Inverse folding.
C-alpha cells in the first residue's frame, strides 16, 4: 500500500476507534462467555487471588489454584465451590522456583488439561528502602513478580497458540507504571511484568494469534493486608481500593477483552501526566499527592496472615 | 500546611516550572563540571559504552571500564587516553554474575576509589519470539539488563549517599517504555531498569539526598551492531540512531542533570500518546509506524563483533 492510502486508512480508522471508545463510555461492552474455560490463578490462597477465584467460579469455569499456603488455598477452594465452580483443583507451588513452576504446570496439564485463562497474580513486596533490602528478597521479588510470568507463559501458551484461544491476565500494579519511593525492587518487577505482557500481547497479534487476549491490571494499593499500614494522602483522588471491587473490575476486564485496567481511574490521568509534564512539576505533584510518603508507615502482611 | 495553601503553592510552582521548561526550549541549561569524577561504565568494550567513555574522557574524568571483552576494553582505554582521560582503569566483569559484580566493585573501590558517576550500560538482547527464546538467555537478559543495576547500586550508592554527591545513569531503551513484538524478555528487562532507576531516584529525593542525580536514557535502535538487520519503516520519524549522536546527547543529559532522555524526540510523543489513545488506535499506529515488524529482519551482533 502506498503512503497516501495507508495514512488515509489510519486516519479514518483512528476517528472510528475514538468514536467507538466514546460510545463505550456510556454503552457497556459485550461480555464473552467463559463457561468451561480452565482458569489458573497463582497466589490464590488469599487476597485478590481468592476473590478472583470466587468470581471466576460463579461463571462456570474449572479452577486451578496455586499458592504456597495450603490452608489458604483449601479455604479458597471451599469458597469457590460455594460460588458454583464445577471443578476446583489446587496445587502447592512456589512461583519463585522455575523448576517447581514447570513441574506443577506439567502436573496440571496431565490432571486437569490445558489452561485457557492464565492469571499471574502471585506477588510479594519487600517494603524497604533499596539499600536496606536484602539481596535474597530483591531476587525473590523479581522471581515471583516477573520471572514466574515467563515460566507460566512457557508452560501454558503453546496450547493457547495451537488453539488460537486463551486469555493472559497479568496482575501488575500502578507501581508498574510510576516509580514509588520505598518500592524500588517491587517497581522493577512490576514494570517488567507490564513490559513483558505488553510485548507478548503484541507478538501474538503480529503472528495472527488474535484469539489470545491480554489483560494487564495496574491497581493502586488494595486493602488486602499486603500493604498494611500504608496511608494515602488524598483518599478521594487515590483511595486505598476495596478488594471485592478490584476483583469484580478485573473479571469485567477479562470478559470484555480490555487490555489495560488501571484502578482507580485517576491513575490513567496521573500516568498520562507523568509523560507530559516537566519533571520538576511531576515531582511536585507526586509530593502533593503523597507519593513520597506512601511507604513510610508500611507494615505489610503479618506472619500470621501469611 | 493546610489544603488551600498547599494547593496554591503547587499551582504557582507548576506555572513556574512550565515557564522554566518553555524558556529552556530556547536557552540551553547550565552544564555542571565533572572534572575529577570517577566514572564507571559497564559494557564499555564497544558500542555506546565506548563512545561515552571517550566523551567522559574529554571532560577530565577518571574512567573505570567494565566489560566481558578484554580486547574491546583495551581499545576503549586506548581511545579514552587519546581523548584526554587522566586515568583509565579496566576490569573484566561479567554483569550477569552478582558475585562477580560485588567482587570487582570491591576491587575498584580499593584500587581506584569511590565511583561518583555510575553508568549502567551493559546490555544484551535475545532477539527471538518469546516461545523460541531459551530460558538461559531470558534469565541472562534479566541479570545483565536489570539485576546488574541492583548490584552496582548496592556497591557504589552508599559512598554517594555519604557524600550526597553522585550521578546514576541508566541506559535503558525505548523498549523500556513501549512493548515491542519480538523483544519480550528485553522489554521486561528494560521496563524494569526504568522503574528501578525512577524509584531509587525518588527515594534519594525523599530522603534529602538531592545531590545524587538520576538520568534514564531510552533510545530507539542505535546503529552499533546490537540490533543489526533491524529496519525502521519511517526513517524520518523514527530514524535508526547514530551512536556518536546518542553518546553526545547522554553526556549532555548528565551535565544538565536531565532525568529522562528519550531519543529520537518522537519517542516523547509516542510514549505520551500510548497512555492517551484508545488501545485499538495505539495498535493501529504501532502497525503504521512499523513497530510490529521491527524485529523481523533482526540479525544482531555477529560472533566476530562480540
Amino acid at each position: 500500500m502506498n503512503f497516501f492510502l495507508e495514512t488515509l486508512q489510519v486516519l479514518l480508522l483512528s476517528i472510528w476507534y475514538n468514536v467507538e471508545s466514546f460510545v463505550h463510555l456510556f454503552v457497556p461492552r459485550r461480555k464473552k462467555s467463559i463457561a468451561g474455560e480452565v482458569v489458573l490463578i497463582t497466589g490464590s490462597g488469599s487476597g485478590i487471588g481468592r476473590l478472583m477465584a470466587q468470581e471466576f467460579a460463579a461463571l462456570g469455569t474449572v479452577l486451578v489454584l496455586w499458592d504456597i499456603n495450603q490452608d489458604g488455598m483449601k479455604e479458597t477452594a471451599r469458597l469457590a465451590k460455594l460460588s458454583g465452580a464445577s471443578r476446583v483443583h489446587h496445587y502447592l507451588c512456589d512461583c519463585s522456583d522455575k523448576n517447581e513452576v514447570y513441574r506443577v504446570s506439567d502436573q496440571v496439564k496431565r490432571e486437569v488439561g490445558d489452561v485457557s485463562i492464565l492469571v499471574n497474580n502471585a506477588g510479594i513486596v519487600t517494603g524497604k528502602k533499596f539499600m536496606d533490602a536484602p539481596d535474597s528478597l530483591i531476587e525473590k521479588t523479581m522471581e515471583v513478580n516477573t520471572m514466574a510470568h515467563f515460566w507460566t507463559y512457557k508452560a501454558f501458551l503453546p496450547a493457547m497458540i495451537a488453539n488460537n484461544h486463551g486469555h493472559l491476565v497479568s496482575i501488575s500494579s500502578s507501581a508498574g507504571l510510576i516509580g514509588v519511593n520505598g518500592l524500588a525492587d517491587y517497581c522493577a518487577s512490576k514494570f517488567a511484568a507490564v513490559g513483558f505482557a505488553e510485548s507478548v500481547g503484541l507478538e501474538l497479534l503480529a503472528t495472527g494469534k488474535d484469539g489470545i487476549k491480554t489483560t494487564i491490571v495496574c491497581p493502586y494499593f488494595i486493602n488486602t493486608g499486603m500493604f498494611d499500614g500504608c496511608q494515602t494522602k488524598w483518599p478521594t483522588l487515590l483511595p486505598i481500593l476495596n478488594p471485592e471491587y478490584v476483583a469484580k473490575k478485573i473479571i469485567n476486564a477479562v470478559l470484555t477483552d480490555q487490555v489495560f485496567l488501571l484502578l482507580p481511574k485517576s491513575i490513567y490521568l496521573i500516568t498520562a501526566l507523568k509523560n507530559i509534564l516537566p519533571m520538576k512539576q511531576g515531582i511536585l505533584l507526586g509530593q502533593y499527592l503523597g507519593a513520597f510518603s506512601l511507604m513510610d508507615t508500611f507494615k505489610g502482611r503479618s506472619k500470621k496472615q501469611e
